[in-house]
Amino acid sequence: MRALAIAALLVLSGCGSKEKAKEQETATPGPTGPHLGEVPLDQPLRATDNALTWSLEVAPGSITWTRFAGHAAEGSVTQFYPVSPKVDDDKAVWTTKDTAGAAVTITFTNAHCVEGGDPTIERPLTAQLQVGDKVFHGCAGARPADGLNTQPLTGQGNVAGNAGDDAVENSVTNGR
After folding, report:
1. Which among 111, 92, 129, 119 has a CA at the least distance from the CA of 169?
2. Peptide bond preceding 34: is omega within 30 degrees of 0, i.e. cis?
3. Which of 45-54, 70-79, 148-157 has the lowest mean pLDDT?
4. What is the pLDDT confidence band of residue 171, given thresholds at 50, 70 and 90?
5. Cβ atoms within 10 Å of 58's Cβ, excluding its own
6. For strand 125-131 and strand 134-142, is the pairing parallel, antiparallel, or unpaired?
7. How is the chain split among helix, strand and coil, in percent rounded to 5?
8. Taking a C-beta distance cutoff of 8 angstroms, is the pair 151, 47 a contact?
């Protein structure tokens, strides 16, 4: 009789483990981090202007703005205090300061942006950077894995052909 009870327990425990295994196979993955459109905001991002006079790197734990040659702040690298973005509808906004205490607002909008030039580069987001009273406009997206600023145009046609309700040509010059 005792052997029969043990056999029954073994059979029942075997059934439960198959059901659990089946549940685990069909379980949906957990929630992902914040996104702006298809762009994950918890991964390194890069924003640049049309003339590549500046670059903004936003990554978990760091925000770095680099000004390239041709400006009063020629070749400067500025660190901003790292903060998490506030994501609302089609915008992500980082409100922070630079190390000198100047107010900084970074806004990425879920609207395609085209950087003219050769080669033409398309990014999934538009970018606005405000440092103090100066405003800079550009395009943004995931930072390329190679770290280089090379993402060829993936849309069809030329820059003018991509302009539409959801596309923005980055022809605005930097703040003065």
Report:
1. 111
2. no
3. 148-157
4. very low
5. 25
6. antiparallel
7. 15, 40, 45
8. no
Specify the pTM: 0.65
> Two tokens at 158?
């030329």
Structural contact between residues 138 and 122, judged by C-beta atoms closer than 8 angstroms = no
Three-state secondary-structure class, residue 25: helix
> Alpha helices, DSSP H only, in 1-158?
2-26
- Decide if pLDDT at 149 tops 70: no
Q: Give the strands of the sheet with 54-59, arranged side by side.
A: 77-80, 62-67, 54-59, 45-48, 134-142, 125-131, 103-109, 91-97, 86-88
Cα 23 to Cα 32: distance, rounded to the nearest angstrom: 21
- Taking all residues of the chain, what is their mean pLDDT, rounded to a whole number? 73
Distance CA 171, CA 173 (A): 6
**CA-wise closest residue to 125 among 59, 65, 37, 51:** 37
SS3 164: strand
> Which tokens hold the place of 105?
């607002």
Residue whose token pair is 């022809």? 171
Report whether pLDDT(40) > 80: yes
